[in-house]
Amino acid sequence: MIWLLLAVTVVATALSDLLQSYEMKQAGAQSVGARGVARLLRMVVERRYLLLSIVCLAFSFFAFMALVQSAPLSFAVPASAASFILETAAAKLLLKEQIGARRAVGTALVLCGVVLLGR
Amino acid sequence: MPDSNRLIRTYFWLVLFLGLRAFGNLLLASGVKHLPQTLAGDPMVYLRSMLDPSIAAGVVMLIGGLLVRLALLSVADLSFVLPMTAVGYVLAALLGRVFLHETVSLQRWLAVLLIFAGAAVVGSTPQSTTGKVGAAR
Lengths: 119, 137
Hints:
- The complex is a heterodimer.
- Chain A is mainly α.
- Chain A has helices at 2-27, 34-46, 48-70, 73-79, 83-93, 101-118.
- Chain A has six helices and no strands.
- Chain B is mostly helical.
- Chain B has one domain.
- In chain B, α1 (3-33) crosses α5 and α5 (87-99) packs antiparallel against α6.
- The chains are: A mainly alpha, B mainly alpha.
- At the A-B interface, α1, α3, α4 and α6 of A face α1, α3, α5 and α6 of B.
């Protein structure tokens, strides 16, 4: 059950981040002033992928709550970093981002850490 | 804004963000571990769990952390913020050990340090490689 909840947390987080990244790149850079926040809120309602990203974020949060109920905090929080691995692969394949050597090394370190956590 | 003020403000937001997220997760974990029901599956159990003071405080702190992160990003670069926030993985292990009396083996500490190092390295890479991000509006 712990691994299923971790998988839901990680996949939902990665999906949410990917959808947000895709939509926000289409929208361009935003400011965080009062007018900027109002524009952001309007954008969330108007852009379906952003709405979907919030649904994914909610799934991720509720799965994380269930995860920390049965797993130690010292396992759950670091293990949730596995989303880095999924996001990096998806960013390369779906968003066509360039994955440099440093980012690949960082992702490999996270992967090693998550594998070590699971042993 | 003078550089010294900006530096103080940046580190103030950073410490506040790390604290809110770490202790928010701690309160959330502490609250859900004491719930009589299992959370997975039933939405009503989730709604009722929000009435637990520890869980409610944890959720409020995590929301506060999100807002503080926005403020932090307004005074510091994302490439600075991401590696620094990876400290949170080590903090989670530390708080679990101290407050929840979790057993953290040497292997788990090593795993946490690898994840911290990996997240810090990923965070220190260029933020945009696709060139699609436009000018701030």
